């Protein structure tokens, strides 16, 4: 199990970036080879057309003006205008299709990371703030947008530009070209010095952004608690500190990033001076005025893309810090998955065995100790006991949200690790205490676990668990739109919808973490009869809080310290005068006190 992380702690990077990761990024671009080829052809056409300008200037200065050839000047004018129109069209084509390419790649990447996240085990989500996961799917991928769309193809265009310009320069004057390249080693040295520092600075920045996001996410999720304890000022102070930290780290990263750009600019200007100096003084070269002026044009043509490539490299180093995190998420092993030999769980009757199960979330800290029981089909089991005893853990192992550390969980004799997850979870229905309602209509929420259910089947399920009545009373009935987490519904209504959702999926085994929130007596009665309808004919495990649920169960397991310390039906356990008896007495007294 990985190390836990919090919003105020920087995440450590499991694996530093390697060149292999650039190759991996290239894999995302590969399916789009054809549009890239088309864009490249357009770029070459534009570049060659762009070369004509300085060349026409040279001809005009060296030949046309001395010969006063108006006819040739006219032709050159027409050709030059034509080349400018062509360049304009190419530019438009390039910008549109490059943007499309970048967005396509980002879409694929986002899809991969989303799909992977959906499969990761509970342990992954237990171990890090959700805001830190969110930022990877949304913001980090977005930071690649510019790199992949403009950056990538501009790079190809710039490299072409440099090569074609060099060809023109070498053709016109070899010596002058070598002079133009004299300062390139200095540039390479500068890049080498800056790149490592820049990458580190952006790694730190990505961590700070992640912390900020985690805190914002947590604050939004917990805003009701914050307001009810009037903790806004304290939260503001914490946020202010994280925010300042973020800004400072950002400015530090930018400071380093800005080292490269002026350096490249300076080198280009010095090169230009050098060419004027050796050209005018004729040091080691013999050049005409036209050639010298054309050359200066080419040097501009040469250095502009070099500056762009420098900028691309800059954004590549910046993006690297984000790419590392994206690939780290994609490489996160899926701990709970089908084994290669996994088979579909056949139609089960609902017999469950916990065979001497030990379990720990963290090494060396057993949460369950030698839990052993057998449950026959159709039996209802209530799990009771003090908080933190291990009740939820037991039910989480049953539907294989975690794997046992030792022992085995068997359903109808099949080890849950050996069957496919899809076939297991189709027959083992889970209703967690956090009754998640998704954005959408009530109809869609009930249909969540059985997408092919008809409207009639949805309504029939709602009717059986007594949810139908209140749904029909809502403004748009089953088509009423509900918000994320069902914030516009009462807790009793959320429970009834969750009952209908599970009932519709019709699992043989039902796992239920009973909600503790108290509801009015009328709703309580509704929930009880809804629950009764739900449990009928199924093996059920309920982390039970309501006395009525507990008393009606076939067997009660009293859990303490990760062990079943008492088991039997209500009457047996009361007769034992043990832990369960004391729990029952205290709850009973409480009930009397409340009434
Ligand atoms: N994801 C987790 N990582 C580490 N420890 C955990 C995790 N979930 C639960 N625990 C620990 O495991 C123990 C058993 O927790 P569990 O949630 O199973 O208790 P419970 O009996 O269901 O409690 P409650 O009645 O309060 O819901 C507790 O000590 C808890 O702190």
From TrEMBL:
Q: Which GO terms describe its cellular component?
A: plasma membrane
Q: Which residues form the ABC transmembrane type-1 domain?
A: 39-318
Sequence ranges assigned to domain ABC transporter in this UniProt record:
352-586
Q: Does the keyword Metal-binding apply?
A: no
Topology in the lipid bilayer: Multi-pass membrane protein
What GO MF annotations does this protein's record show? ABC-type transporter activity; ATP binding; ATP hydrolysis activity
Q: What is its main location?
A: membrane
Note the InterPro entries from the entry. AAA+_ATPase, ABC1_TM_dom, ABC1_TM_sf, ABC_transporter-like_ATP-bd, ABC_transporter-like_CS, P-loop_NTPase, Type_1_exporter
**Key word Membrane present in the record?**
yes
What is the top-level taxon of the source organism? Bacteria
Q: What is this protein's name? A: Abc transporter, atp-binding and permease protein
Q: What is the lineage of its organism?
A: Bacteria, Bacillati, Bacillota, Bacilli, Lactobacillales
